[in-house]
Write a structure and sequence with these properties.
homodimer, 209 residues, mainly alpha, Arc Repressor Mutant, subunit A, Tetracycline Repressor, domain 2, 0% strand, DNA-binding, transcription cis-regulatory region binding (chains A, B), DNA-binding (chains A, B)
DNA sequence: TTACAAATGTGATAAACCCTCATATTATGT
DNA sequence: ACATAATATGAGGGTTTATCACATTTGTAA
């Protein structure tokens, strides 16, 4: 099925599904080139002509696999999100009480923050360059998915609390976490660190009930 | 001084300062037209040609007062921010204890949320369409200014706490408030309301120390 | 191997848009 | 009324995205 291939490649916005191996390599070349260009000058500055040249592919080929310019960026964003979600899933696995959750969450925030600081592409894509609605939708879906992971743990650890309220709280905590990261990487390092610490305090209190 | 005129008109990005009254009216016509167009189809869809036609002005005239397309949007954003800041300043005036602060803040959040829900232009501009860095800078400066207002009250009410930490906390609370609004208007109304409530709980706890 | 069909690759070019600038019009001061 | 400064105009230059008719490569069966 084409969909499984799509899942493997994480190409929700693709136009033509690559069935031959040569075209899969091609798609990877395009994405690698996009990554490099974004790291160098930001996603705004990425031109389709540059991308074609860097990937050693014609412009027409770009549009074989991506319906438009922003789809390339969205695909990268989703890859990074998937990577982050794995991180969260691992971090929350095996948590069995509230103090454990606090510790795990605190470490997750640090890990995430480190990823934001280290990955120029992630920095760029999530630092507010959300020109199109589809990219915002991806952001929202990401918060939702991460929030669901957290909510699951919370409802398990606090069976007496209202699950609906916990779900909203978890969703918000995750979304504001992303917002905090974006803020933190927009200011100087010292202030960014302090803001991340302040966020952690706020979020951890939320787990106490 | 041209700067005073600039201050009155809130046109930080203007190219030529309007000295004749006719051109001031013109600028207002342009901004009103921009507002209408954005309310109708979003800022992404606002074309300079449409704007010129709607404002009954030539394209060249647009560039007499705005250096580029995004400057028009930024000017509107700054006007809305100024309006919001006045709101906050009023709301926090006369607060004399922590319970009072909690009540005032809670009401401010409701007011702000109401503004976001009611104003299509504000919705659009702040709902994530931050394609260019300058608009993000405006967002950041806004959070900072609002945070400073809150920090002032907090340091007054809690003289024993570390002022630096309070400042970071206030900045973060204000910034995450904006993030919450953006999130709330992106989901359905019931969920949005619940998320705003969750944010209020989180923020209010932060004031307790 | 050869031939044929399906899949994939190419780049000139259409279409859309932002912004400039030479020129025309209007306002202000004498 | 005249001169000069301020403002208004819109055709066109320049840039970028995306298309599509045609060329090339791959897979397959005789």
């Amino acid at each position: 099925m084409g969909n499984e291939i799509a899942g493997e490649l994480q190409m929700p916005a693709a136009r033509r599904w690559p069935t031959q191996s040569r075209s899969r390599e091609r798609v990877e070349r395009i994405l690698a080139a996009a990554s490099a260009l974004i790291a160098e000058a930001g996603s705004d500055a990425m031109r389709m002509s540059d991308l074609a040249e860097r990937a050693e592919v014609s412009i027409g080929s770009l549009y074989q696999y991506f319906p438009d310019r922003s789809a390339v960026i969205r695909t990268l964003a989703e890859r990074y999100n998937a990577q982050g979600r794995e991180c969260i899933e691992e971090g929350l696995a095996g948590v069995s009480d509230i103090p454990g959750l606090k510790k795990a969450f605190s470490e997750l925030v640090d890990t995430y923050y480190g990823m934001f600081l280290a990955e120029p592409v992630m920095r760029d894509i999530w630092s507010g360059t959300q020109a199109d609605k589809l990219l915002r939708d991806i952001d929202l879906a990401d918060s939702r998915a991460n929030g669901a992971l957290l909510a699951e743990v919370l409802t398990r650890l606090r069976p007496d609390a209202d699950p609906g309220e916990l779900a909203h709280s978890a969703f918000l905590v995750m979304h504001l976490g992303e917002a905090t990261m974006r803020l933190a990487i927009s200011v100087d390092r010292a202030e960014g660190d302090a803001l991340v610490e302040a966020y952690k305090r706020m979020a951890l209190r939320e787990f106490e009930g």
